[in-house]
Amino acid sequence: MRIGFKLIAEAYSPTEIVAQAVKAEEAGFDFVEVSDHFHPWVSEHEHSGFAFSMLAAIAARTSRLELATGVTCPFIRYHPAIVAQAAATTALLSDGRFTLGVGAGERLNEHIVGQGWPAATTRHEMLREALEIIRLLWSGGYQSYDGKHLRLEDAKVFDLPDELPRIAIAAGGTEAARLAGELGDALFVTEPRPDLIDEFVKAGGSGPRYAEVPLAWAPSVDEAAESARRLFRFGVTGWPVQSELPNPVNFDAATELVTAEHMRDQFGCGPDVRRHLEVATQYADAGYDHLALINAGPDMDGFFDFFRSDLGPALRSADGQGN
Question: Which domains does the chain have, with CATH numbers?
Answer without folding.
Answer: 2-318 (3.20.20.30)
